[in-house]
UniProtKB/TrEMBL annotation:
It comes from Pseudonocardia autotrophica. It comes from the Bacteria. CDD domains: Cyp158A-like. Its cofactor is heme. The keyword Heme applies. Belongs to the cytochrome P450 family. It is an enzyme of class 1 (oxidoreductase). This is Pentalenolactone synthase. Keywords: Heme, Iron, Metal-binding, Monooxygenase, Oxidoreductase. Its EC number is 1.14.19.8. Gene3D superfamilies: Cytochrome P450.
Length: 399
């Protein structure tokens, strides 16, 4: 009897995904695996099936029988089913209607100049932080603070609380937490509940105020749902972008010719560079979780009602059936229909925000510091392999 492989698969380094994904793509588009805690799940490895399942209404984040659901990790994010099976579609529609305007591409373009000011401030701090050897931590002074500054402003969260909710985020996302992740999530939701109470007394022009007003207009929008949404927005709004900035810089700095080509034509190569960073950077490595609400026939297998499905965007983005020379970093790639933000009705509402931040960071960073280079070997980086969001804890650079 062949034992199903267990996630997460071993990977050679932070810039590459596990070689096993290529093997599995050749074997079948949908394969049985075990989750990090040992439960059974289906892993989607190919691009066509990933797109198809992202758009399939028979998959959801809730579970028809939550008590029988396969569990993924011990984290409080990407651990198991979320939301109510009976009301998931209704809640999702309400959430999209509420949040899409706040994170629209138009609003993000208007935000662009301000993000530029924030990036310049972070770069000032980075330059000032250089030690006697000329080394500074780009993660601590740019990759981390910039997304936090932006999401704090959008949500109406005090930036002075950043160390507190960042610490909670770290605990919430621990793959193996021994129960502490659930405790941290309870603290996280209590924190967002206090923020909501503040916005009821002192409303602002921010997403937290929007959530409070939506709750006032709809009595069925309870406190539990509000705090869950707010905590999720605050977590995802900074954690995921932090990792993309770090890995994007690494993708450029680990290939001097690639960096030099970008520096020589920042404006012309910016869009393509950002899209390749999004396609190839894979900080986490687990995939996006769904549960089957009905039986689904796909890729030669039957996914049964209630089965867990892990859709690997990292593997799909390297599928030779969808991308020419998919392992190559090619900023001239057209089109580049990667699925890093998902696809269809659950397409990430923060996509425009992430693109705005990445574009602004890369343009200003390499214009101001064109000679930027790593101060350590990539093998010496401290990788956050214990976190579902992955990434690195520090990124020493010099110039």
């Amino acid at each position: 009897m062949i034992t199903a492989p267990q996630l997460p698969f071993d990977r050679p380094n932070i810039l590459e995904i596990a070689p096993l994904y290529a093997v599995l793509r050749r074997q079948a588009p949908v394969v049985p695996v075990r989750t990090p805690v040992g439960d059974p799940a289906w892993l989607v490895t190919r691009y066509a099936e990933a797109r198809e399942l992202f758009g399939d209404s028979r998959l959801g984040r809730s579970h028809p029988e939550p008590e029988n659901a396969a569990m993924i990790t011990e984290a409080a994010i990407l651990n198991g089913p979320s939301g109510s099976y009976e009301t998931e579609q209704e809640e999702h529609a309400r959430l999209r209607a509420l949040l899409v305007p706040a994170f629209s591409a138009k609003r993000m373009r208007l935000l662009g100049d301000h993000v530029g000011e924030l990036v310049d401030g972070c770069l000032d701090d980075l330059v000032a932080a250089r030690d006697a050897d000329g080394v500074a931590d780009l993660h601590a002074h740019l990759s981390f603070p910039l997304p936090v500054l932006v999401i704090c402003e959008l949500l109406g969260v005090p930036y002075s609380d950043r160390e507190y909710f960042s610490g909670l985020s770290e605990r919430v996302a621990a793959i193996r937490s021994g129960g502490d992740a659930a405790t941290a999530m309870a603290e996280f939701r209590a924190y967002t509940g206090r923020l909501a109470a503040t916005k009821r007394a002192q409303p602002g022009e921010d997403v937290m105020t929007d959530l409070v007003r939506a709750q006032e207009a709809d009595p069925s929008f309870g406190e539990e749902e509000l705090t869950r949404i707010a905590a999720g927005l605050l977590f995802a709004g900074h954690e995921t972008t932090v990792g993309r900035i770090d890995l994007g810089v690494l993708l450029l700095l680990t290939d001097p010719a690639r960096r030099d080509a970008f520096v020589a034509d920042v404006e012309g190569r910016l869009h393509g560079t950002v899209e390749e960073v999004l396609r190839l950077s894979a900080p986490g490595g687990l995939g996006l979780l769904r549960y089957a609400h009905d039986d689904i026939e796909i890729g030669g297998v039957t996914i049964r009602r209630g089965d867990a499905v892990m859709i690997s965007t990292d593997s799909a983005n390297r599928d030779t059936d969808a991308f020419d020379a998919p392992e190559e970093f090619d900023p001239t790639r057209r089109p580049n229909p990667h699925v890093s933000f998902g696809y269809g009705g659950y397409f990430c509402i923060g996509a425009s925000l992430a693109r705005t931040e990445l574009s602004t960071v890369f343009a200003r960073l390499f214009t101001r510091l064109p000679g930027l280079r790593l101060a350590v070997s990539p093998d010496e980086l401290d990788v956050r392999s214990d976190q579902i969001t992955g990434g690195v804890r520090a990124l020493p650079v010099t110039w």
